[in-house]
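Example 3.2
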Amino acid sequence: MAEGQVDVHYKALDDCRIQVNWVGGRIDVEGTFKDIGMTAPAATTDSNLFGTLAGAHDLAGKMDKIWKSIGQEFTDAKAKLKATEDAISLVETNLRDANAANGA
């Protein structure tokens, strides 16, 4: 290897990027329920679901808050995986450009 060049296995970088993309494409709340043959909960929980339980309205509200939080976690995870995929692509591009500039 010539001085100034970096020995990189571009296929390994590409394989990693592809796997990150594959995982990111599968992070989907609605899809998760479809995969198990169920439907996602309604946008808001009907407190009648708990019958005459004292505090049913508060419990339904807390369930909605949890569901919203789960959705946000899925959204955040998907965004982080996309950022990782983009970063891997940028690393590969920068390495190729650096090697090209050094005559590789």
